[in-house]
Amino acid sequence: MNNFSKKQPSRRTDAPSLTSYRDYLPYLSEDFNRRCGYTDSSHRYWSVNFHVDHFAPLRPNVSKNKKQAFLDGELIYNNLVYACPQVNWAKSNDWPSDNPVTTVKNDRGYYDPCSTDFNDHFYRTSGGAIMPKEDDRVAIYMWSQLKLYLKRYEIYWRLDTLREKRQKLTALSEKVLSGSNHELEILRLLRDFTNEIDTYENYLDLYKAEVA
Length: 212
Fold this sequence. Notes:
Order of helices and strands: EHEHEHEEEEHHH
Mean pLDDT: 89
Structural class: mainly alpha
Strand order of the largest sheet: 1-6-7
Number of domains: 2
Shape: elongated
Number of strands: 7
Distance between the termini: 34 Å
Number of helices: 6
Low-confidence stretches: none
């Protein structure tokens, strides 16, 4: 079992006042560590921009006299989440209550990734798949509603893990370059392996550009 993420996102307290919530995208990207707030997947794996999700949605299915409270959250920075397109589409206007303050009701709802440590509610399998903790009904609801079970999030986690290991091995190789012939051979193989990963990642970038 692995932790869901290594670093929890944190919204800045001095965000500027802007006239469009989409203009907050670069600020959210930095605050959310350039990762989706709900899946912890790096934005590097998408050929399109991430979305600005409204944690409490703008147009939930509530009575007419309750709608304005949600619309008032359009430009509130603490109501914005840096999200991958798939999760934002899945979440859409779903909300468990008739007010933006009640985020959970009858075991349905959402955890705010900035105010709740997702490691307490989700975990990763040895292969990187996202799983809800079995006794956490809200996490189970989110996992199903947001489609956190999609294979892509496991693949992205694996690629991140490979990248981290490669960086560590490359840094280590610089320290032992003056070693024995066997060590140099190992280092040459390591560098070949690194080049193969780079080639594969470049292929992914080209593929994303073609299908976008």
